[in-house]
Amino acid sequence: MDIFFSTMMLMYSLMTGTGEENAAANHVAASMLNAAAGQTIVETAFAGNITPVLPSDDKKQDPQPDAPVVKGIYVTAHSAGGARMESLLKLVDDTDLNSMVIDIKDDNGYITYPTQTPELLEKGTPQKYIKDIGVLMTSLKQHHIYPIARIVVFKDTALARKQPELSFLHSDGTIWKNGRGESFVNPYREEVWKYNVDIAKEAARLGFKEIQFDYVRFPEGFEKRAESLQFDKSDDSRVNVVAGFVKYAREQLEPLGVRVSVDIFGYAASVPAAEGIGQDFVKISNDVHVISPMIYPSHYSTGWFKQKDPDKSPYATIKGAMVDTHKKLDPIGKSKPIIRPWIQDFTASWLGKGHYVKYGKAEVEAQIKALEDSGVTEYLLWNAGNKYTAGVDYK
């Protein structure tokens, strides 16, 4: 436990001790962008033990009980609308992979195809990364690919610039940015909830079977700057606000026959609630059909799961993360979602010589084996450039 807490406090200090203004933290955060399903490692606020709370209506139902066992890859909008898509389709055709998670609202907040829907155009900024979304959906159907729409929610620089009142402002009225120049919008604003769910509804109409929400949280280290920023808020805690969005999204989308999933930090399964960013692993899991913890071995530091260098021990690291995940979620019984982790198909060279290994077939298969041995049959592979290892047995 001493190693555990010292490790967590080190990460807390690195990523939030001096904010994103700290040059060292910026360097680590920028390096890790490749690996974190769009997210960087953040602090964990030690908020005490979690008491599982069932959804208030206790009526969560899987709208797709006959869905396949999902084994998928991340696909950027640039890849989905460009030349790389041909090779990605072939990868899925030639293997046991059967799904793609495709950016529909990306990490900058852009809608990635030229939508003509008035309520989306009011707040959204469309791009033509995917020039013809209909053609894409037809192609996915022809290749028997289970399509998942990734929507980045509260990290939304585009909307913050378009409507600053929906963001976090400095006293001089300028928009707050993190060390990478990115802005977030305010999870307390329910019009932000509606906007993102409206995008999800359009994705459902287009034929996506599942909506995967990412960045369902406040900015990292938010509790250290909240008092100095101007933004609308209620008396609700950040945890309850974030959980409230997830519940709202599920209730709005479930009748359309689409599943709702959320990406969440892998650490969240191993520690108490992260009050600072508003993420409670159990509360969020209560109201989703699928939970996707990002359990990349590269994102665990020395001492985690008794490993000196977790990145060099993909089997042990994934196995340890799944033990903690089951411990966290087993008590919620029928409300337990499908566990479908993000795993690592990239090399974390930024960890430094001696602390990482080049990831290839053996390392990816070790992670899959660890999931299988933990009773988890679904997974998603992350590589920011969509360059996936050849010859992997995706059993």
TrEMBL record:
Residues 72-388 form the DUF4015 domain. InterPro entries: DUF4015, GH. Pfam families: DUF4015. This is DUF4015 domain-containing protein.
